[in-house]
Amino acid sequence: MNDGQLLRYARHLLLDEIGIEGQERLLAARALVVGAGGLGSPVALYLAAAGVGEIVLADHDTVDLTNLQRQIAHTQASVGTPKVTSAQSAMLALNPEARVRTLPVRLQDDALLREEVTAADVVIDCTDNFAIRVLLNRVCFALGTPLVSGAAIRFEGQVSVFDPAEPASPCYACLFPESADDVQEVSCATMGVFSPLVGIVGSTQAAEALKLLSGAGQTLTGRLLRVDALRMEWRAVNVMRDPACPVCGHRAMPG
Known about the structure:
Elements: H1 3-8, H2 10-13, H3 19-27, E1 30-34, H4 40-50, E2 54-58, H5 83-94, E3 99-103, H6 110-119, E4 122-125, H7 130-143, E5 147-153, E6 156-162, H8 172-175, H9 188-191, H10 195-214, E7 223-228, E8 233-238
Parallel strand pairs: 1-2, 1-4, 2-3, 4-5
Antiparallel strand pairs: 5-6, 6-7, 7-8
Helix pairs in contact: 4-5, 4-10, 6-7
């Protein structure tokens, strides 16, 4: 690290759990953030502020006036522009040293997705599309890349980490089966969402990603953290791998 970086990241360096070695790991890391909306905004901003070496931001959408109630990476002046471009500008304004690569596409192409996940040290799922979540989970598990998953609707949110490097870790499909008949697509446009909730959930996702990259603390692997913002109640639920899961069930159970 140079003198400017030592000053910029000084508050991380003071933390024994991160320190110089952990910050250097962050500076050398690459994160893939899928979604630059309500969840992706705080994730992208905190990863940039924390000094993650390269951040790849994928989103096909453009900024709409209705987004501004909660998507804090965007401004009134960004309306009509690609979300990845708007978020990139906010990230660079916060940390000019940040390296941000934008993908203004819906990340459904298998070859492109595999290429990006292969290059990433962590993937943060900030989407609101079940099909994309399923695809991300399959590719992340196949390539051994940890996945930080978050969701928020109305006043309720949840976060978990699915880490193929941990033998006992479930995958997203263990909790939400791909073939589940009762999975319904829900949208902020029809259900509404409490503005700070996406900040709470997205910030938690950012914290989990930074812990994975720096090696600090214990992640949410094997736990699903739920928040009810209407009552401001938190609950952590232990989750187990499903031996019959079509995605990860073929792994030998830890003895």
